[in-house]
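Lecture notes, continued. The same structure-token format from the folding unit now serves as the input rather than the output. Read the line below as a description of shape only.
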């Protein structure tokens, strides 16, 4: 059966040669699962974050059908700061900055009690 595999960001390197636009239509055995396709492509587990089949979140044990579109996204930077970590999010830094210090396109920080900047 044929499955369209779309790999985003840094994952495109796991597509077979000749793939275009970060996608490839590939032939697989009937009954293959999302996880089996990911394993066959050689994508390390820690490099996959969000998996969609036909635009809907899917688990690794989900079976694929002929004509399905499998999309895999890597982890994306960001997230919540851990207590005690040195890393500070943009929001934390924006709350400490005066409105005049913020870039023009971010003149309004999302901080409680911060006045609007015209």
């Amino acid at each position: 059966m044929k499955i369209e595999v779309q790999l985003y960001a840094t994952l495109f390197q796991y597509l077979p040669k000749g793939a275009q636009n970060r996608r490839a239509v590939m032939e697989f055995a009937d009954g293959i699962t999302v996880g089996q396709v990911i394993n066959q492509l050689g994508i390390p587990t820690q490099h996959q974050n969000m998996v969609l089949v036909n635009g809907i979140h899917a688990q690794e044990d989900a079976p694929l059908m002929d004509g399905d579109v499998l999309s895999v996204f890597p982890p994306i930077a960001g997230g919540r700061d851990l207590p005690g970590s040195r890393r500070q999010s943009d929001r934390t830094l924006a709350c400490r900055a005066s409105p005049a210090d913020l870039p023009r396109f971010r003149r309004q920080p999302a901080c409680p009690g911060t006045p609007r900047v015209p």
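Point for the exam: The chain is about 15% helix and 20% strand.
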